[in-house]
Amino acid sequence: MTYKYQMLPLEKVFRDPVHNYIHVQHQVILDLINSKEVQRLRRIKQLGTTSYTFHGAEHSRFSHSLGVYDITRRICDIFQRNYSQEKYGKDGWDDSHRLVALCAALLHDVGHGPYSHTFEHIFHTDHEALTVAIITSPETEVFQILNNVEEGFPEKVASVITKTYANPQVVQMISSQIDADRMDYLLRDAYYTGTEYGTFDLTRILRVIRPYEGGIAFSMNGMHAVEDYIVSRYQMYVQVYFHPVSRAMEVLLEHLLDRAHELYQEDAEIFTFHSQFLIPFLRQDFSLEDYLKLDDGVLNTYFAQWIEEQDLILSDLAYRFLNRKPLKSITVDSSENPLLIELKTLVEKAGFNPHYYTAINSSYDLPYDLYHPEKGSHRTQIELMQKDGTLIELSKASQLVSALTGQGQGDIRFYYPKEMTQQDSKNSDLFDDYYQAFAKHIRNGALVE
């Protein structure tokens, strides 16, 4: 028996609060889990700064990756048992693609960095490109394990990440409007944030999932379970992912890293004694090996050291971030509102550098978006399969989803130091006039004339 098909003598299970047990049957999957690149994901939070708002949200990208793997394994089992090509021909499931699907599911997030999206923005990294690099670079343990399956196997797994794999069923298991990735993170994030409205009936969705030649669909009689998933996703974005305090902490983190980047250009020596792993990114010349040294703990250690630095902005931003001193915010109707210039001027007069202590942050996502071929790129549609095998796009059958389709959810916020609106009226302050002028433009958490 080749390594590709080598099964464990006894199934391995991981106890999981979301899926109860996660089952591992293939040696290659267990080896990948034990690789240093996958173990590194234990040290990266799934939700970045969200734990500053929802204190239970300390779960890692490692636990999420195992969850995505297990949902994918369950889908493969269902497809092979009920919808194999032996039964359904070209519309059925070819189980020879199982191991590629399982490996891609487990590794889909292996390229994420610390505080991933904020870090990506500042240092121009791309977690998907880095995931592909980790899978296909001979120096990684992940590559060595995958290459033992068969020559060219790492490239097969990577092609699922880049959505170029020949079998669209596999690609859509990992990346589509309703995939193993989204189904796990919604349930997992809801569990750890304590937000019950983020849950949906995964068991029912897996019961009605169907393969067809062009990808994955869902039986028409399961439409309501899919609707439930769409509404849960909507609620999670509005209530959790777009939470203004979590975004405030992201703004602080972004400005902190931005300040470090600026200081490095002026005096690189500042960071040579305590931030060595970050230097390749500050000078924007890093290797894959450099990238894999970073995790949330490494950055937090550097931030603790930066509190002692002489640069007052770097020191203060690091203190505010580590000790949860978020910026305050108000909603604005437009990022172009001329009043924002006045508010930034008042912030500056009160002693804060507006570049580092103010921000305009907009956060929008579509709970469900349709296929628009004229756009050139799209998220995969959710297709419902009718009794005669024909497909109908979800929003055409569901009034509920139709009402949500294309509706952007989010807001635009202006962030500023809380000192601007939280002064003690009993004690006079040098900047009282500026505070009062600032406060008169805020009512009920929104900008007013």
From TrEMBL:
InterPro entries: dGTPase-like (IPR050135), HD/PDEase_dom (IPR003607), HD_assoc_2 (IPR045509), HD_domain (IPR006674). Pfam families: HD, HD_assoc_2. Transmembrane segments: none annotated. Residues 57-195 form the HD/PDEase domain. It comes from the Bacteria. This is HD domain-containing protein.
